[in-house]
Design a protein that fits this description.
- The chain is α/β, with parallel strands linked by helices and 363 residues long.
- The chain contains 13 helices and 14 strands.
- The protein has helices at 3-19, 52-68, 83-95, 112-120, 145-163, 181-194, 211-225, 238-250, 266-274, 285-300, 334-338, 345-348, 354-359; strands at residues 27-30, 40-45, 73-78, 100-103, 125-128, 139-143, 170-175, 200-205, 230-235, 258-259, 280-282, 309-312, 317-323, 326-328.
């Protein structure tokens, strides 16, 4: 990053600190003392229905950025699952002098023009969590999403075997948003694990990862397949599992079918303890967000980020860091989610589930 560009970015950061808290595009800005090594880093997250983004990704990324580069300015935007809004946010960040873009795309197949705008200005782009298609860029950090789906599918099979319902009844699959390429990877992995071993009665792709739409889909599946025939539900994440549970309870299930999830949302962890959800995928978001911040600072300094592999996005081989997912069942909550400080025991063990927590060794 050239000295004159960084000095300009630092000046922009001072203006932002004086005049910006949030704007109509959804961005917030904060900056510290300017310096010759300062840069402006912009983080774009896709939505807030999934609790991880506001509670974990954003604050962890910002804290690591400030640790590594105290004089860096930070711009933050959440698109609320609106691709047009995210486009405006990226354009706003470019206008405000962003030196690095960290982009978790709402529609990963439609953001190539935004990446191209940055590339033309020689501004590095990091794809965060979701792979961007159709154009080359500087770095990608995510989890092995096919492996996530495989782990979820295998956990579902293991629970069916444990219950003695393997090979009987039908499975409902509630996949993620069709505009998120991660969803296709999760689905592929789940089918790798499930195909030929269970009967998939109904399968849905869920726009916007919406819990409400997942509830509607689950209700449709119960109506079409019959309540007694459903022995398991593959849900690609915990938010949609919440919708599935609402539909199952409304249908009068005394014991809920085996049910998967992802993201280790607090409500999902509590459901696992009470037996309403089988498992969740714990993604160490702290490591992911800190890795992205490290890469952003490296790119701002004209350095190459550390990588573990490359991923071909259909256009180019992207330097990549892939992290491993962790399956969390009731007996693993203490040694993963709690041990890492993702949640404390007091966060999880509210009075209404105190008995379940005690039985799991969490009290």
């Amino acid at each position: 990053m050239r000295r004159d560009r960084l000095i300009i970015a630092a000046g922009a950061a001072l203006l932002l600190a004086a005049g910006c808290g949030s704007d109509s595009g959804g961005g917030t800005a904060a900056s510290s003392a300017p310096g010759a090594e300062a840069a402006t880093v912009a983080l774009f997250l896709p939505e807030s229905k999934t609790t991880r983004y506001e509670q974990f990704d954003k604050p962890v990324f910002e804290a690591k950025l400030k640790e590594l580069c105290p004089d860096c300015a930070f711009l933050y935007f959440n698109a609320d699952q609106d691709a047009a809004k995210q486009q405006s946010q990226v354009e706003s960040a470019l206008t405000q002098g962003a030196d690095v873009l960290v982009l978790d795309a709402v529609d990963a197949d439609a953001v190539a023009p935004l990446v191209n705008q940055a590339t033309q200005r020689r501004i590095p782009v990091i794809a965060y969590d979701r792979r961007i298609s159709g154009i080359g860029y500087d770095y990608f950090v995510s989890f092995d999403n096919v492996e996530v789906g495989e782990v979820q599918g295998q956990a579902l099979l293991d629970e069916l075997t444990k219950r003695g319902t393997a090979g009987t009844g039908q499975i409902v699959m509630i996949n993620g948003s069709p505009t998120d390429p991660s969803s296709a990877d999760y689905k592929k992995g789940a089918h790798n694990a499930l195909d030929g071993k269970v009967t998939i009665g109904r399968e849905f792709d869920t726009p916007d990862w919406s819990p409400d739409k997942a509830q509607e889909q689950m209700e449709q599946a119960i109506t079409s397949l019959g309540r007694d025939s459903i022995v398991g539900v593959y849900s690609a994440n915990d938010g949609m599992a919440t919708g599935a549970v609402a539909a199952l309870k409304r249908a009068g299930y005394a014991t809920l079918p085996a049910l998967t999830g992802q993201d280790a949302e607090l409500a999902a962890v509590q459901r696992i303890l009470t037996g309403e959800q089988t498992m969740t995928i714990y993604l160490n978001i702290k490591v992911q967000a800190e890795t992205a911040a490290e890469a952003a600072v490296a790119l701002a300094r004209g350095e190459k980020p550390k990588t573990t592999t490359t991923v071909n996005n259909g256009t180019a081989d992207i330097p990549t860091t892939l992290l491993d997912p962790i399956a969390v069942t009731k007996d693993k909550i203490k040694d993963t989610i709690v041990a890492d400080g993702f949640y404390t025991v007091s966060d999880i063990c509210t009075p209404d589930i105190a008995a379940a927590c005690a039985a799991a060794g969490l009290s």
